[in-house]
User: What shape does this take?
Amino acid sequence: MNDAVRTVIVPLLYLLSAVLFVVGLKRLGRVRTARAGNGIAAVAMGLAVVGTLLELGSVDYRWIALGLLVGTAVGTWVAVRVPMTSMPEMVALLNGVGGGASALVALAIYWVDVVEPDRAGTAASLLGGAEAVTAALSILVGAVTFSGSLVAYGKLAGTITGKPVLLPGRHAVNVLLLLGSAVLGGGFAWWAAGPAAGAAVALALTAVSLILGVLLVLPIGGADMPVVVSLLNSYSGIAASATGFVIGNYLLIIAGAMVGAAGIILTQIMCVAMNRSLGAVVLGGFGGGEAAAGSPGSGEYTNVRSAGPEEAAMLLEAARNVVVVPGYGLAVAQAQHAVRELADLLEKRGAQVLYAIHPVAGRMPGHMNVLLAEADIPYEKLWEMDRINPEFKNTDVVLVLGANDVVNPAAQSQPDSPIYGMPILDVHHARTVFVVKRSLGAGYAGIKNELFERDNTMMIYGDAKKVLQELVGELKQALAA
Assistant: This one.
């Protein structure tokens, strides 16, 4: 029976799980099917766990059950309690946990197979050359992902400054750490002949990799955090795939490779959307600070007009085409339900309301899509940047809610601007633009926004949710009149 389980049932479970992972990942590519895709991927993971336990055979299920109970309880509690504004932080933590788990599995395999039985020889001779190399890679990439994700979490949560932390000689230090980790990885695989020496080298590799992860993410500013989160997600997949080679689990190799490839593709999409190269992001130094005196886009605003909710409501009342541009300010204010109520009122008056989604709006890829979906805003009203940009010239009113750099015309008009060449939402072509912000503060790029001084732009100062509620109140009064 055991042989039948391992030779027939387990491979079938792995095959079904792999197929479901592919289907789930495909469905995650569209907002309308994303929730179903997430559920399918969860089922695939469940089948993978069952298949792995059946393949192992003799395991203490009491520990397995305890781990499942604790993990389920913690995961459910965190997922239910985390506010939408903190979702990027949660994703960063999950990336870190995945990377840390991969590193721990590789260390555990070496401990169980080499150190505990006190076997003499190198990791390559005892585990196999490929297994030893991938174990070293699992430790390296997993530890870098773990510590880097914790730093990303700190930057997103505000416990670590969002400004680039530019340590002197950081590039040279990072190169030395990377070379040191390569040497330690080689030593772990081929040169450390005894279990004690191998364990010492493995722990040294872990320590160096943890330091490298911290130093790689610290210099990266808040503007690049969406790219960093995506890149760390890719790292966690690569670490998992390498761990699959270590333990001989083909499904883990497949799933990790898919996550790694998807993360790299998404990272490249984010880089294109920000007009940044991946190398420039990794080297760090952009975003999170104030513009330096005399730098492009620095200086005081001189021609900014403001309006109140009553004046804005009058223009919205007469508008036939309205585009809402959601940004992080909308997420902070938890104003997604208020904007849905406003849109419903405008549509009752015959207006068309659309939502313009920039690829890097918010603090992680897809942040705005998820936020608006929470308010049951129809998916077909969420238009991507390339689709919505030609429509702005025919738009009566654009309502910008907390977005900044993604609507800054300096990206098109100032060749010396740090965001020049970055694709933006062309809201400045609309007849009227209302920008809802608490102040004239700069976005993550740290530069002033040309849009605020345009003749067709008016600022509405205040919390996004409060302003939207006031607009709703004004429109309701107009409807009742």
In short: The chain has a mean pLDDT of 87. The chain has three domains: 1-81, 84-283, 309-480. Residues 43 and 411 are 44 Å apart (CA to CA). The radius of gyration is 26 Å.
